[in-house]
Amino acid sequence: MSIHIPDNTRKVTTRRLVEMKQRGEKISMLTAYDYSSAKILDEAGIDCILVGDSASNVMAGNATTLPITLDQMVYHGKSVMKGVKRALVVVDLPFGSYQGNSKEALASAVRIMKETHAEAVKMEGGAEIRESVERILCAGIPVMGHLGLTPQSINKFGTYNVRAREEAEAEKLVQDAHLLEEIGCFAIVLEKIPAKLAERVSRELTIPTIGIGAGGACDGQVLVMHDMMGINRGFSPRFLRRYANVADIMTEAVGRYIEDVKTGDFPNAEEQY
After folding, report:
1. Is 191 a catalytic residue?
2. How far apart are CA 71 and CA 82, in angstroms?
3. pLDDT of 4-29, one tens digit each?
């Protein structure tokens, strides 16, 4: 198995992602929400870090992404940026901070950029959020789109099942993808859609697609770090590959620590002053 050796001499930018697509180099992306994790991901050579509103689930214990606030996203974004030198950092605009009000959308995006020092924002939706996306782009703020399963709309869908299986929804997704590219988005996340549809979108667009549960034809892939690391043990969709079982490692380590404290083995003579 080959190990990817990152080019740590070049900062990853929105332009560089387009260049990667053009030469067929896949884009790696993971979520992070804190300084320590972001530093590890960046030093490992990850191309993009998403400060996802999934922090609502894996950091705050909420059932959906809806409760997380703009204040909380700013906090997580600031923490992540302090640990990153190379990766492109994208921050999710949370539910309620951009839908239906383009002026509020711009204010939310400006606040993210000014207070976190991140390099882009991500927004869920297509034609229905066009005005908000355009207003943000006009301010010079890069926008990553997000189509397919959009978790902020969970109460509308009522399920986390695969989206765009039906022809009408699939065609709307293709149209929305082209729209987002035309108005200036630099990349689009495609979540939980049929692989053949994701392949079509990836082929038709000149901007990169980042898949999560959307097959291998996307220009890149993203996973929630807590899921792929096995920290979150209660989530096992088909698209998830676990690269470690960190929860098991931590549980075993904590158990040994408890035992050493109870028996008086910790701290020993060499571990005190």
Report:
1. yes
2. 17
3. 555 566 899 999 999 999 999 999 99
pLDDT bin (cut points 50, 70, 90) of residue 197 is: very high
Q: Stretch 164-191: mean pLDDT, rounded? A: 96
Residues 74 and 191 in one domain: yes
3-state secondary structure 152-218: HHHHHHCCCCCCCCCHHHHHHHHHHHHHHHHHCCCEEEEECCCHHHHHHHHHHCCCCEEEECCCCCC
Task: Compute the chain's Rg from CA coordinates.
Answer: 20
Whether 233 and 251 map to the same domain: the answer is: no
Tell the burial category of 176 from Cβ atoms under 10 Å away from its Cβ (0-12, 13-18, 19+).
buried
pTM: 0.94
- How many whole angstroms separate alpha carbon 181 and alpha carbon 201? 11
In a domain, 68, yes or no: yes
Cβ 61 vs Cβ 72: under 8 Å: no
The percent of the chain in helix, strand and coil, each rounded to the nearest 5, is 45, 15, 40
Mean pLDDT across the stretch 217-233? 96
> Whole domain around residue 107: which residue ranges?
14-242
User: Cα–Cα distance between 264 and 127 in angstroms, integer?
Assistant: 64
Q: Which one from 191, 199, 252, 271 is the annotated catalytic residue? A: 191
Does residue 198 share a domain with residue 271? Answer: no
Q: Are residues 251 and 238 in the same domain?
A: no
